Amino acid sequence: MAIITPNEPGVASLKKFASDLRESGENIRNEVRNLQNVVDQYQAKLGPHADSIKNCIEVIQGEVNKSIEPTNSLAESLDSLANDYQEFIDDDIFAGIGGGK
Q1: Domain residues of the chain, as ranges?
Q2: What CA–CA distance (Å, rounded) separates 1 from 76?
Q3: What is the pLDDT of residues 60-83, one digit of tens each?
Q4: Ramachandran sector of residue 98 (left: φ over 0; alpha: ψ -120 to 50; beta: rest)
Q5: pTM
Q6: Topology given in CATH for the domain delimited by 8-89
Q7: Which contacts of 22-30 are long-range, i.e. CB under 8 A and separated by 24 or more positions?
């Protein structure tokens, strides 16, 4: 498990991870839609199993949709933590002490 420290690289890592989570969820959702489109396009050629295949895809879509919400919630938490870290970095409470700024 990586440790993210409250510094600029840590903030960047958190923001990238949040963005990657959101993007991966959307990519999965898009691929399931693409699969649905292909099945719709070739439905006549799928024969007696077309309805079963469509039902399976609907189940997959439902599971993907259920997983998107917690994934986005985690991404929001990571963004919030990154923002908190950035505020901590920007709020230099020791500036001006001992002849500094």
Answers
A1: 8-89
A2: 20
A3: 999 999 999 999 999 999 999 999
A4: left
A5: 0.73
A6: Helix Hairpins (1.10.287)
A7: 22/71, 22/72, 22/75, 24/71, 25/64, 25/67, 25/68, 25/71, 25/72, 26/68, 28/64, 29/64, 29/65, 29/68
